[in-house]
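Re-run with default settings, no changes from the original entry. Doing this only to confirm the output is reproducible before filing.
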Amino acid sequence: MVLIKQNIEAICNEYDLERETVIRAMKEAMLHAARKHFKSRVKPETIVIEWDEEKDIIDVYQKKRVVSEVKDPGSEISLEEAKELTGDDSLEPGDELEIPLPSEEMGRIAAQQAKQTLIQRVREAIRERIYEEYEAKIGELVNGVIRRFERQDIIVDLGNGLEGIILKEEQVKTEKWNQGDRIRAVISKVTKETKRPQIQLSRASEELLKRLFEMEVPEIYDGTVVIKSAARDPGERSKIAVASNEKDVDPVGACVGVKGSRVQNIIKELRGEKIDIIQWSEEPSIFAANALSPARVSQVQITDIEKRKMRVIVPEDQLSLAIGKKGQNVRLAAQLVGWDIDIVSEEEIKKEISMKMGAMMAEGKSVPLSALGVVSAAQAEELNKRNISDIEALAQLTIDELADILDVSMDEAQRILDTARSAVNAKQELMGDKKTTSESNE
């Protein structure tokens, strides 16, 4: 009989464990110690540990099967010996006995081994409890205090004796932290490993951005405004797409707050990271145009709906803004929308159209004015009334003449003429190349 001197309730309270878990750990510890102590005379697999709830003691037994003829003394006992040992004449072959072992022999070394095993089992139980509790909290925001740095990882005190870890890849390069600083992060992963904190945190994930908006914007917290998607270049720039479930609530305005107060609080928490708040749309072309903010978009063309690819046309002066520094703006927009986005300028499109029209004219094909892309059907009809029915005739007009005929501004007239003349120039270049090639062949 081994008296349990440890205060079970104290262990339960200290480690926040259930009583049954601690008792089970104690039994495993004693079983391990008993098997090691009695291994020279008792088969380890025959040792049994039982807990006496009333007396708070653990009994150590050896289980043996009653037989008529003993062949294995390590696991069998003769019927006669069993009756003599127990005084029970009703025993029969096949019955099992639990014979008390002299546990007082185990001594100090065995007790120390049991204690070490108990500590190990308690730690395993704690890890399992943490895993089960915090796995359901992945993505949630937590507060903590930076306790120390291990190599390039940050160890965070989460309270109640718990620690979290922010691995190097989950940190933001532009952020600098000191021991003792308070820090917010989201739970990104929970593990069962023993060499480092089980709770992994992140300062770099999109989830942190979402949780901060939920905390700062009541309309998001109560479901009036919904976060549809988010994309981050941690420490540099973020984009978050929001939509409203109520017509009279502006989702972007709700997130910005009065004089930008709400979004500024989030920017401060993210140490100056720029944030674009985007109006979400179920129409990909509209959503993409919004996502490329602050750039102004002229047109969005879906080029492959199955592969989710699109081409976005922007004015020449908006090209660098749409692409962003090192492609950051278009990359974040693509992540936000979930489509591949190819950015082209209006000038590139004009050149593309001009080359296409020029090639058709060089082949002697009839090209309608509306094919230029800058002349509407109504405008083409008006030009036809003046016997201007092809691109080359259109290119011969002056700006004033075209502006009077179509009743458009001088800038609009200039744009139409530039496109027509580009097509004519493309034709002439192609014709010249063909002529040169022909002469070379001769």
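Residues 137-204 form a domain with the OB fold (Dihydrolipoamide Acetyltransferase, E2P) fold (CATH 2.40.50.140). Residues 434-442 have pLDDT under 50 and may be disordered.
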